[in-house]
Amino acid sequence: MRVVIIEDEKPNATRLKNILLDIAPDTVIEAMLDTVSASVAWFKQHPHPDVALMDIRLADGLSFDIFQQVELSCPVIFTTAYDEYAIRAFKVNSLDYLLKPIEKEDLRQALEHIHKQAQPAGSTEMIAELLAFIRQKETTYRTRFMLPFRDGYKTVLVDDVDFIFYAFNVTHLVLNDKTTVALTQTMDELEEQLNPGQFFRANRQHIVNISSIDNIQHSFSGKLKIRLKRDPGREVLVSKEKVPLFKQWLDK
């Protein structure tokens, strides 16, 4: 079985690769890609694999955008950390998806399922319908966090969140008063739950509130450096691939 993995989080991509090789040791990983642009270029230049595994959100956009630029002739299994509307759409269109973290038995069943389908799970028409559905659907975003406090809990409004960072395998919430709180949610989950008009995933380690930005500077290799108002010493870099999305987000 020839497989292409499209995932912008390297640990997730490596996990998928290892699970695939565990399920089917003769699997050949044709490519491991992390952006829409790189995926489009690869599919245009190479024979299509037996299966493509795609994360929904990539560094430079949604993986559904790949289908607007190249017609895939292989089945697709999508992966997502949290996206209830996408999941509903998958059920409607009988497309395959897996929730992160990916488990071996779930992936095994998904592979068996797509091999039984009469038509590829990634057909262009179905993908177009799904993309339109997700973009038009009104989404309800998280407005508050319930956090442990002394012998009970306290509520923190999302508007009071300055930025979020990931370090030492823990997600941290930083409030406007500089209080730092550990969260159980992953960065992928928070990226899905927070209003994209207010928050931006600058890189794998940081999600910033638009109100937390003091200024933006050019950095090396086409990257941008965000300087935060309340933590000016923190280095928050926007990758070259994400710069166009970041500029578009700022210019709304």
UniProtKB/TrEMBL annotation:
<keyword id="KW-0597">Phosphoprotein</keyword>
<dbReference type="Pfam" id="PF04397">
    <property type="entry name" value="LytTR"/>
</dbReference>
<feature type="domain" description="HTH LytTR-type">
    <location>
        <begin position="173"/>
        <end position="252"/>
    </location>
</feature>
<protein>
    <submittedName>
        <fullName>Two component transcriptional regulator, LytTR family</fullName>
    </submittedName>
</protein>
<dbReference type="GO" id="GO:0000156">
    <property type="term" value="F:phosphorelay response regulator activity"/>
</dbReference>
<dbReference type="InterPro" id="IPR046947">
    <property type="entry name" value="LytR-like"/>
</dbReference>
<dbReference type="GO" id="GO:0003677">
    <property type="term" value="F:DNA binding"/>
</dbReference>
<dbReference type="Pfam" id="PF00072">
    <property type="entry name" value="Response_reg"/>
</dbReference>
<dbReference type="InterPro" id="IPR001789">
    <property type="entry name" value="Sig_transdc_resp-reg_receiver"/>
</dbReference>
<dbReference type="InterPro" id="IPR011006">
    <property type="entry name" value="CheY-like_superfamily"/>
</dbReference>
<feature type="domain" description="Response regulatory">
    <location>
        <begin position="2"/>
        <end position="115"/>
    </location>
</feature>
<feature type="modified residue" description="4-aspartylphosphate">
    <location>
        <position position="55"/>
    </location>
</feature>
<dbReference type="InterPro" id="IPR007492">
    <property type="entry name" value="LytTR_DNA-bd_dom"/>
</dbReference>
